[in-house]
Design brief:
The chain is an alpha+beta fold. It has helices at residues 27-40, 52-63, 103-108, 147-152, 156-162, 171-176, 184-188, 223-237, and strands spanning 4-7, 14-17, 42-46, 125-131, 142-145, 166-169, 193-196, 198-200, 207-209, 215-218, 243-246, 265-271, 275-277, 291-295, 314-315, 341-342. Strands 1, 2, 3, 4, 12, 14 and 16 form a seven-stranded mixed sheet that branches. Strands 10-6-7-15 form a four-stranded mixed sheet. The protein has a three-stranded antiparallel sheet with strand order 11-5-13, with no helix packed on it. The radius of gyration is 19 Å and the shape is globular.
Length: 364
């Protein structure tokens, strides 16, 4: 089948037409979607009414092994009964909106921070498939940042300074920045992982920053200096010119808050495109967007020695990722709307492009 790619942003993000992801199995089409991911970093697919099993099946056909160890699993089993399907929602097992003081809701509020899915695991995530099932009347937008373009805009000196650095990623750290408290047993399950600050794609030859809210420290630097650098890099990478705001829309305004077949839009993002959810009235209106992440197993290799404070974390060294071959699918568990992001980074001395936060990010 012939795919049509339409750019939605000057730097990244493309909309794809001419494919039903529930049905696609041929290698040529799957390879064309992968090539689109290499080019755009984020792909938007409209009219994709996934069921849970269909979303999981497509993710396996597209990239093989799924991530089945989520941060929220440390708090307890999710309502799907399958950790390969991340529950990006504000509802309980009965479909009712979580109470404002519910611990699960407080944990999920961190999705409003910039984050790269599964960067706190080893191997990290490669693609994230996010599917919208139920929309609230407002406040359901998702923002994506292009870490490849952000890296390209760094000065040569800063790129050189950041080369070879490694970063500890922890989902417990990102939640704790908002005041979320974990029990000792929960923290024991969330030790995090170490990955290169700058990643290189063997397919495109491009480099990208690999960081977001899970990034807790640069191992080779002092704690204060590393945190300052990570903050500066995120401020740089999330300037308006590097950000795309996606407005999820049902086919008809009357379908707001209804099941997914009335609002079937899916995004796929790679690890170079962190995302964050826009604030909304999640204490009153339902939002259901299951997510499935695939594993970047090629990045899982022997680790260098870690500082004592992080000796229990898993890690992956700065090795070029290799594209995974297409693999057949077997029955998997539920997940929906696809958002794929991938990020690598390379750094250099302190020169930051002028910030233009007054410029509104492009949106669909």
């Amino acid at each position: 089948m012939a795919l049509e790619f339409t750019p939605l942003h000057p730097l990244f993000v493309g909309e794809v037409r001419g494919v039903d992801l529930r049905r696609v199995e041929d290698r040529a089409t799957l390879d064309a979607i992968r090539a689109g991911m290499d080019r755009y970093g984020v792909l938007v697919f409209r009219e994709q009414p996934f069921t849970d099993s269909e979303q999981l099946d497509f993710a396996q056909r597209f990239d093989g092994t799924l991530h089945a160890k989520t941060g929220s699993a440390a708090l307890g089993a999710n309502r799907f009964g399958n950790e390969a399907l991340t529950d990006i929602s504000n509802v309980d097992e009965h479909g009712a909106v979580l109470a404002a003081d519910d611990r699960r809701r407080h944990y999920g509020l961190a999705n409003r921070l910039w984050h790269t899915d599964a960067s706190f695991e080893n191997p990290p995530g490669r693609y994230s498939l996010l599917s919208t099932r139920v929309l609230p009347p407002a406040g359901a937008d998702t923002e994506f940042a292009d870490m490849r373009a952000a890296y390209d805009a760094l000065s040569p000196a800063l790129k050189a300074q950041l080369e070879g650095l490694t970063v500890h990623h922890s989902i417990a750290y990102s939640r704790q920045t908002l005041g979320f408290d974990f029990s000792p047993g929960e923290l024991e399950k969330l030790k995090g992982a170490v990955h290169p600050l700058i990643r290189h794609s063997a397919v495109t030859g491009r480099r990208a920053l690999y960081l977001a809210s899970h990034a807790s420290r640069i191992l080779e630097w002092s704690l204060p200096e590393g945190k300052l650098m990570l903050r500066e890099l995120m401020e740089h990478a999330t300037q308006a010119q590097f950000v795309y705001r996606h407005r999820w829309q049902p086919q008809d305004p009357r379908d707001l808050g209804q099941p997914h077949d009335h609002a079937p839009r899916t995004t796929v993002r790679g690890s170079e495109t962190p995302a964050r959810a826009a604030p909304g009235d999640d204490a009153r209106h339902r939002l259901i967007r299951p997510l499935v992440a695939t594993r970047n197993a090629e990045d899982c290799q022997p680790c260098p020695p870690l500082p004592a404070a992080h000796a229990s974390a898993s890690c992956s060294p700065p090795s070029p990722p290799v594209r995974r071959r297409n693999s057949s699918t077997s029955g998997v568990s539920p997940s929906s709307t696809v958002s794929t992001r991938c990020s690598s980074t390379k750094g250099a001395a302190m020169h930051w492009p002028a910030r233009r936060r007054s410029q509104a990010p492009p949106a669909s």
